[in-house]
Specification:
The complex is a heterodimer of chains A (about 120) and B (about 110). Chain A is globular and about 40 Å long. By secondary structure, chain A is mostly beta strands. Helices cover about 0% and strands about 50% of the residues of chain A. Chain B is mostly beta strands and about 110 residues long. Chain B has no helices and eleven strands. In chain B, the strands form two sheets. In chain B, strands 2, 4, 5, 6, 9, 10 and 11 form a seven-stranded mixed sheet that branches. The chains are: A mainly beta (about 120), B mainly beta (about 110). Chains A and B meet through strand 5 and strand 10 of A and strand 5 and strand 10 of B.
């Protein structure tokens, strides 16, 4: 069971970035997925969720209207499209499987996004 | 949003000690609470779900209790790998929220 994130990097304020999370060893089409981020040296912040079908999504207020979560079950992948990036979006971004009870039982290793001029 | 507050922020202990970390919710979350362990540079790892259920593969020295607004993570007989940071998380209602973390350090 593994989640692998990619797509992080350095981007200027106002720029865009797309993160990808590829799952293996899971019945991905049954799984609810979230993105969670962690600024350097700080705590964890849940930012978005997508249902197994992709029909239902939720966002934290801090990213609503700027970030979009999507998934492709045929590719065992979940995506995070990030627009209008700000300096305070700088963080390690983790994708995680949300268990049926709501806790996060599988995590990726994370990908670092740095927003700086 | 439901606010989660952990105490203490830092806890000093020795190998073999038993320690407890508190987590308080700003409103009742029943038992919709999880605990995670995070080592430096690593992803969080689920320890406890639904307040008191031990995740598969997690040592039995970890235990959780509580309901409503007050919860506790207890680590019995601290081992060297346990000196890391712990987070609580509520999943009663969106947005899911985490506590600010408790760092367990060597005394």
């Amino acid at each position: 069971v593994q989640l692998v994130e990619s797509g992080g990097g350095l981007v200027k304020p106002g720029g865009s970035l797309r993160l990808t999370c590829v799952a293996s060893g899971l019945t991905f089409s049954d799984d609810y997925m979230s993105w969670i981020r962690q600024p350097p040296g700080k705590g964890l912040e849940w930012i978005t969720y997508i249902s197994n079908s992709g029909i239902i999504t939720y966002y934290a207020d801090s990213v609503k209207g700027r970030f979009t979560i999507s998934r492709d079950n045929a590719k065992n992948s979940v995506y995070l499209e990030m627009n209008s990036l700000r300096v305070d979006d700088t963080a390690v971004y983790y994708c995680a499987r949300e268990s049926y009870s709501g806790s996060f039982d599988v995590w990726g290793r994370g990908t670092l996004v740095t927003v700086s001029s | 949003d439901i606010q989660m507050t952990q105490s203490p922020s830092t806890l000093s202990a020795s190998v073999g000690d038993t320690v407890s970390i508190a987590c308080r919710a700003s409103q009742s979350i029943s038992t919709w609470l999880a605990w995670y362990q995070q080592a430096p540079g690593k992803a969080p790892k689920l320890l406890i779900y639904k307040a008191s259920n031990l995740e598969s593969g997690v040592p039995s020295r970890f235990s959780g209790s509580g309901s409503g607004t007050t919860f506790t993570l207890t680590i019995s007989s601290l081992q060297s790998d346990d000196f890391v940071t712990y987070y609580c998380q509520q999943y009663n209602s969106y947005p899911w929220t985490f506590g600010q973390g408790t760092k367990v350090e060597v005394k």
